[in-house]
Amino acid sequence: MKKGIPVSPGVSIGTAYCISEIFVRPEKTHLEEDAVGEELARFESAKEQTIRDLKALESKVYAQVGPSEAAVFAMHQSILCDNAFTKKVSGWIVDEKLTVQAALHRFLEEYSVLFSKTKDEYLQERFADIRDVVSRLSASLTDVKNEIDRGLEGPLIVVADELLPSQVVLLGDVEVKGIVTQAGGPTSHAAIIARSKGIPAVSGVPGILRQIKTGDTIMVDGREGVIRYNLDPESIAAYRKLEREFFDFKDQLAENRDEPTITADGLELELLANINSTTDAESAVAMGGNGVGLYRTEYLYLTHPNVPDEEEQYENYRRVIQSAPNNQVTIRTLDIGGDKTVPYLGHNHQESNPFMGWRSIRLSFEHPELFNTQIRAILRAAADFEFGKVRMLFPMVTTVDEMRRVRSMVRRAMKQLVSLGKPFANVPIGMMLEVPAAAIMMDTLLEGCDFVSVGSNDLVQYLMAADRDNPKVSHLCQPLSPPVLRVLKNVIRICNQNNTPITVCGEMAGQPKAFVLLLGMGLKKFSMSPAFIPTIKELAKVISRAEAAQILQNALKLKTTSQVQRYMAGQLQRLAPKFTILDTA
Ligand code: PEP
Ligand code: MG
User: pLDDT of 114-149, one tens digit each?
Assistant: First the structure.
């Protein structure tokens, strides 16, 4: 058994599929005598293909972002063209009968030992480039679907160091019913993706890739944050039963999709969906969401080999809006940086404090053309739907100046569209409240905002000075901590008094305990992973605003996070005991 951080509730059992073995342990290391020639050819053609991809990337980035951002891809090509690299890898294939993957793995190991001896930042960045290129090459050799055709039986439990969006795309339509990661926490990519698909997941399980190999049977318990393997047949049968109960219960809950969300005292709430793609927009409909509270557009960039141009973005936004529930859709502009890096935006270098550095709107301001393209694509997509359907949301706003600058960029984009004769719509403009400084200045910031959306994942990490992806500080990065509750209560009060619509779109909005407290603060719009909508809808039925306000008042008297968590677990047990399988510890 191994313990990690529970990040997406439920229980599932299945066959492990380990990703990113390049950094851990290639599953097959040696070749048959007669396979060497074929392996060398595989290496050569993967290298050529990767060089071609990099070349295409370089020209597109050159044209759309700039020469210095494109230069990194030229450098990456030169690593692959380097004779020393080719000689080393093919030497191991021929002399030691290593598979290409094993040879690439050894290459990285040798280099990491070499580079670990230096403290020179420049050299360390060069090593990051080497890792980048080698893993790109390695990924072009791995085809998950082929892997599965070679006898792996689905559904699969994906086991990875951290799940990158590109790997999720690679998994395509393979049925994934559980995710386990070594790194990450409740708000990392893997967690967000797992929740958007409604599958159980556990993060922060160090060393799991060394204990589990592809093909093993493992059980993921996303309520307690537990992984079990080497199971006897009785345990397998017991977990299968639990798994069935979990999925049946969820299906049964989703039957409430056409009902409105009404609290015990008759207040209608809006339950919106956080989405990353058109597929998620469809899940939002299937789960009965009232609209989309957050479309994370960066997934379009992250899963795209290069910069998506205005037409591509326009088409994507239109498709997402069309697939979404027939109500409001809030599109958030690019939120790159922190844990989400895009090399074509000059993100190949390491920042020592990425979450406090060059991310989100700060990065967009520095790429005005890229930012302008996105704003135009959103304004154009909005014109194809009824007035008021689309809203535009800006991430990580910190100061009043930034909001002014956003408004002036939107005006500029509109002027350009007028002169080009392209139809567009005027849309409400909102800010994400994620930075404590902005929470302090909330009343002043409202002057420039048509609406506010609280990104509690970031707000909590910044308030608590505890990285949302670092399992070592996850005990601090907790939405149910007393300081977070105080700040949220205040912000919701200010917006309500000012009649500015406010939504909470961080992961806490879909967590039963946090939902009760937010309702008690006077929140009426909640945006969450689609999979959580049916649960929250049922929970709303059994609680009135007055009761939620009383529970909040009691919770605010408590001094520690664990006291709040225990108190809320008790309240949830009392209000809706059957929901505990759908809650994380
Ligand atoms: C947040 O920070 O709460 C949020 C919703 O944005 P993201 O998780 O994409 O940073
Ligand atoms: Mg955020």
Answer: 877 777 767 766 776 787 788 778 877 765 545 544
In angstroms, the CA 70 to CA 61 distance is 5
Shared domain check, 338 and 195: no
Number of structural domains, the chain?
3
Element (H, E) at 227: strand 226-229
Residues within a 6 A CB radius of ligand 1: 187, 294, 296, 335, 434, 455-458, 505-506
Residue 505 a catalytic site member: yes
Phi, psi of 20 (to 5 degrees): 70, 35
134 in Cβ contact with 22 (< 8 Å)? yes
Ranges of beta strands (E only) in 469-565 are 502-504, 525-528
Q: Does the pLDDT value for residue 355 go beyond 90?
A: no
The reported pTM is: 0.77
Residues 138 and 152 in one domain: no
Kindly compute the dihedral angle of the four CA atoms of residues 285, 290, 294, 300, in this order, to the nearest 10 degrees: 20
Helices (H), 65-173: 67-81, 83-96, 100-116, 121-141, 144-149, 165-171
Within a domain: residue 307?
Answer: yes
CA distance 380 to 81: 43
Of the residues 189, 367, 449, 477, only one is catalytic, namely 189
The answer to whether residues 134 and 156 belong to one domain is no
- Among residues 202, 225, 251, the one where a domain terminates is 251
Chain segment 312-329, per-residue pLDDT in tens? 999 999 999 999 988 899
Same-domain check for residues 577 and 443:
yes
Domain holding 104, by residue range, is 33-142
Confirm whether 454 is domain-assigned. Answer: yes
Closest ligand 1 atom to 187 CA: 8
**CATH code assigned at 232:** 3.50.30.10
**Which residues hold their Cβ within 5 A of ligand 2, which is an ion?**
434, 455, 458
Please check whether residues 526 and 553 belong to one and the same domain.
yes
Active site residue 304: no
